[in-house]
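Q: Hi! First time doing this. I have a protein sequence and I read that you can turn it into a structure. Is that right? Here it is:
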Amino acid sequence: MDRCHQARVRNALEPEWEARFEPKSYGFRPGRSCQDAIAAIYTTCKGPMAKRLWALDADLAAAFDRINHGRLLEAIGGFPARDMIRDWLKAGVFEPGKGFAPTEEGTPQGGVISPLLLNVALHGLEQAAGVRYYAAGVNAGRAMPGSPILVRYADDMVVLCHNHRQAEQVKARLAKWLAPRGLVFNEGKTRIVSLNQGFDFLGFNVRRYKRKLLIKPGKAAVRRLRKRLAAELRRLRGSNVMAVLAKLSPIIRG
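A: Yes, that's right. Below is the predicted 3D structure, encoded as structure tokens:
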């Protein structure tokens, strides 16, 4: 019943925030996918005349578990189901063998509404990073010269910058913006790299080879896929061809 209520509240809250969310936020949004995020990176960095040749490849530490409740409820404002959302956030967790633990921060684990709440909590990241778009004219919606571009998928993000110094400045601004929301960078997975070195994002490797940008499946992602296929094939020993194809085709296609 709780999941049903969460879905109902999400369906009411989502359209309002879809009209407000930033243009290059792609995670857990209707009609948007990983491929759209990768396409945005490709469009920005392709070709010999590309200007943004440095990337802040950033990851947030335990984002779902650390969101500040006060800031999140403040962002939701006077939404009619605000009290229900607050009750879900404060409901606590029961773990077998450990008993009951209160939840002072974070969103419900596996909750239907949690991905939307994460996007609400992270709304404003582009502005905090200093991203500026033309608001009118033939270039409306395009980033202004000198502005970084932030592409986010849930709690994974990459900020495309003109130089190393700009990337460092963006990282400092974002860290300051995240702190009151209870969020911090995972320093072990956050780094500033040149596109000539390349970086992995959403299972893809993004790298410039001389003046040409290539985006390929990341080595770690390929290893994971091969490992999964090997495990599935072991389980399917003795099955007929149609059963094997029915099981493997969606994995390979995905």
